[in-house]
């Protein structure tokens, strides 16, 4: 049987692997297909695609957009997007700036708490356009200003903690629209993490294509719950490990294996959407 992992991060956002390292891990786990879904960027897709082609592995270009609906953060995964699409690139560039400014604000908050971290240290470590809280946490550990990453989140960076800074986000409805106009499919990420099931019908009304039923942080009960949502709303089913590379534990890639039949259904839906767009022209 063939399997896929459709939720993966690299150094182009807050993962620790290069695209090539990610593909080599995917190969080791015998995956037939992977999708790269870095936060608010598609920059790593070209290198991941090339590495997959060399490894004879199927690749799907993607991203994970940070969005919100009714004041709740919701992540929208994009699959098969055109990574050169101007509207998509312009919009996500804006959110990359938001992320960079937020790093400065988080560092300033830490400085006010007497923690001598420099924004430059975080940027140098992140070395990407889409930095996030994990980079601040890693910089704090690197500078020996905290014991470990968990502690950094618990003490400073988690929502409500003193160095947490809210992030301006696009609306989930806009995210769906942005993904569609870039030729992609829009999928609600890890619904079990936010427990915001009441927003699912609103996203469906906006044209949501799928829902991530299988995820590292979903229990079997949760996966079944979201498979029922998928059935009820005629949504595609996706899944992935949400691997961020090395942390304390072994990388998560390989822990969630999506049966390939779901990839086949995604491709059929993508082709149908392409056809519809072509006919509408
Ligand atoms: P950001 O996009 O900057 O808000 O950062 C979100 C990322 O931080 C998520 O994708 C996770 O990888 C990571 N994260 C969030 N909460 C925690 C936590 N409590 N411990 C470790 N990592 C976390
Ligand atoms: Zn992340
Ligand atoms: Fe996410
Ligand atoms: Fe993710």
Describe this structure in words.
The chain is of the alpha/beta class and 281 residues long. 46% of the residues lie in helices and 16% in strands. It has helices at residues 19-28, 45-54, 86-112, 119-126, 133-142, 149-157, 172-181, 191-194, 200-205, 220-233, 260-280, and strands spanning 3-5, 33-36, 58-69, 72-79, 170-171, 185-188, 210-215, 236-240, 258-259. Strands 1, 2, 3, 4, 5, 6, 7, 8 and 9 form a nine-stranded mixed β-sheet that branches. Strand 1 (3-5), helix 1 and strand 2 form a beta-alpha-beta unit. The longest helix has 27 residues, at 86-112. The structure holds adenosine monophosphate (AMP), zinc ion and fe (iii) ion (FE) (2 copies). One fe (iii) ion (FE) binds at residues 64, 75, 189-190.
């Amino acid at each position: 049987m063939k399997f896929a992992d459709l939720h993966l991060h690299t150094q182009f956002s807050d993962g620790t692997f290069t695209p090539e390292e990610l593909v080599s891990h995917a190969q080791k786990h015998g995956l037939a297909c992977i999708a790269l879904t870095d936060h608010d960027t598609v920059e790593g897709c070209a290198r991941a695609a090339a590495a997959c082609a060399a490894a004879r592995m199927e690749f799907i270009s993607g991203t994970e957009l940070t969005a919100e609906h009714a004041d709740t953060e919701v992540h929208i995964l994009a699959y098969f997007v055109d990574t050169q699409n101007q509207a998509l690139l312009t919009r996500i560039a804006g959110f990359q700036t938001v992320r960079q400014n937020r790093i400065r604000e988080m560092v300033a908050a830490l400085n006010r708490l007497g923690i001598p971290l420099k924004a430059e240290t975080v940027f140098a470590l992140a070395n990407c356009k889409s930095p996030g809280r994990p980079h601040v946490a890693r910089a704090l550990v690197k500078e020996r200003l905290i014991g470990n990453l968990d502690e950094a989140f618990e003490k400073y960076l988690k929502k409500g903690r003193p160095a947490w800074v809210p992030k301006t986000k696009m609306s989930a409805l806009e995210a769906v629209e942005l993904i569609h106009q870039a030729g992609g499919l829009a999928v609600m990420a890890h619904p079990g993490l936010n427990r915001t099931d009441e927003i699912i019908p609103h996203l469906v009304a906006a044209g949501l294509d799928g829902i991530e039923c299988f995820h590292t942080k979903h229990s079997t009960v949760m996966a079944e719950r979201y498979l029922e949502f998928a059935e009820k709303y005629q949504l595609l089913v996706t899944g992935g490990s949400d691997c961020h590379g090395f942390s304390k534990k072994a990388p998560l890639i390989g822990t969630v294996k999506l049966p390939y039949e779901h990839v086949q259904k995604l491709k059929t839906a993508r082709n149908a959407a392409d056809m519809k767009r072509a006919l509408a022209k």
